[in-house]
Structure prediction request, 383 residues.
Amino acid sequence: MRYLSRKLPRTLVAGVVALGAASVVPGVAAAHFERAGHVYVNDNTTGMNTVAGFARGAHGHLTPLQGSPFVAGGSGTGAGLASQGAIQVSSDGHFVIAVDAGSNEISVLRIKRNGELEQVPHGVVPSGGPRPVSVAENDGLVYVANTGAGGSNYTGFRLSPSGRLRPLPASTISLPDDAQPGDVLFNATGTNVIGARVNTSQIDSFSVGPGGLLTAAPGSPFAAQAPGPFGSEFRPTDPRQLFVTNAHAGTGNGTVSAFNVGIDGTLASIGSSPFADYQTAPCWVEITHDGAYLFAVNTGSSAISRYAIAPDGALRLLGSTTVSNQAGIGAVDARLSSDGGTLYVDESGVAAIGEFAVDGGNLTEQGAVPLPAGATPAGLAVR
Prediction:
């Protein structure tokens, strides 16, 4: 599972789900959030891939960690990956897992007490297919989405306590060459896995068996509600609610879909889904830790759409916040800080991480921190 940005730590999941769409996460959850403070970026650099690491200050401002960027071990592509989830923090908070799309590998790095990273011995392994673009982890079970001619698939691994990745036998699920999977993720309880096929506008949905193998839901893959399903996110407070951005409907026609997910993985539309944002190419999506608000990054119009989420999962558009940097692709991946107070946005056009203060469903741009020279960033992860 995608730690914090994709779900809360295992020790907090039950309590947060029980809160429903409460406005704050009290008690031990808040204490945990106050202690967390690191952001990691898959630089996707050619030759030797690196991971940039940052410490988060009291007001959300990022400062590069000593020794950053850290060598990942594989190779990046030097170009955007058009995916969500290219880097994750493991659900125990001990490791960073990053895709090396240029060498068809996955790298695991250990997180030190001060947030700095070090390579795990034998921590670089083949991804099980060409061009890995997205990875998800839950309680040591890992799935990666590979997208490339002759080998697009989802492939499973086990992550050992020492950080070694080992292939999960019989776990590979082959996909058509033109599927272009752009995201793979677990729900908070680890019982379902979702994958988005960007090019063929379909959504894969699976239940997870006791041994970690996936079983396709009846009717999977499901037709997306609009062209180009891209980023996807389960509601942190309700692992049965799924939200998927639709990126390829054209100028001003962006939407976000909302689904109820059955135990067997069956998808059922919520309300009047899909919900319009009147922007272009909503790709990346993030939901506040209390489950109350959803942010969709519109890559084509460099704006972040803001929605309120009703208890039943229906969305209400609050507005859109323009990203001030409009150079090239001004905004792509986005992740919330662990205290929920800052939204970090990958401004890949200028190789920087934008910092937005979060106040309920409102965003205020605070500044940006540059990425290392040569970075072509592909994914954010928060600890």
